[in-house]
Amino acid sequence: MIQPVRGFRGADPPSGLQGRAVGAYLGLAVGDALGATVEFMLPREIKAQYGVHNRIRGGGWLNLKPGQVTDDTGMALALGEAILAAGGVEVHTIARAFDAWLRNKPVDVGHTVRRGIVHFRRSGQPWVPENPQDAGNGACMRTLPIALATLGQSEAAVAAACQSQARVTHHHPLSDAGTLCVVRMVQAALEGASALDLLHGPVKALLAAHSEFRFRSRHRDNPSAYIVETLQAVFQALFDTDSFAECLENVVNRGGDADTTGAIAGMIAGALYGVEAIPREWLHELNSEIQRRCRQQALALLELAVQRYTAYSGTTVGSLNHSSSRWSSLRDRCWC
Ligand code: MN
Ligand code: MN
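# manganese (II) ion complex -> structure
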């Protein structure tokens, strides 16, 4: 029996929707912390230095402490806090949260992200004009809170929320499409979809609209921050493995933008396999304050999604769980 969100204290919820939501958040942070060690390395350099890199040990070009995370997790937490503060996806609140995040001197900032935030500071506009250079993975890496907050909403509402957070800094059709695909994958996984369902649902739809993302022609090593290469590496790692640990190990040992492939693979695999599937050693190493914020934010955003749903259905928070007919009907309406 799943505990109601409001009553949740301490240990992770055992399974179901909440366990998958917490899994997605901790998966994001664990993937970021694991991948950051080998960011910008080539697979052969990783092999020479670590054999197989599968421990959270810090270091890397950012010289991180073990368990420290980077901008991927930092921006996701800033986005989630903005959504909770506004009680929904409100783009000015989001842009101000990104601005505050940048003022706090994060360990790492992508140049497209910095440019977008500076544009907001100067113009007051929380969106950037379309730019052919904006097909990086910076909007996608932080998108997880959107998936949780808009769970159960219409496809159009999910897409609009997804786009509004993305375009604070990134405005490009491939960034928009890749980011929305990841949100849809996370939402489907949260509601109990299998890896095969993700492949035949959101991923197939992405490939049909943008053939650039096709990922079966060759092994994607050393993926860059270009959203296409990033997601090709993530898809290969996700669909060629069948556990959280194998998926993450597979993706970060490809090197390149490894903290971000780790973060994106981590949020999807965490939603798919649940929090129990994340290796204990990795959770043990992950910075404890980051863990606390991830757990808390996952459940708060889920509660926000449920409240928005129950506001018109008249049911109570504690009566909802992943197997209830209400969540099933949510799934039917938004996905299948
Ligand atoms: Mn990063
Ligand atoms: Mn990165």
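# post-check
The CA atoms of residues 255 and 289 lie 27 Å apart.
Residues 1-11, 315-336 have pLDDT under 50 and may be disordered.
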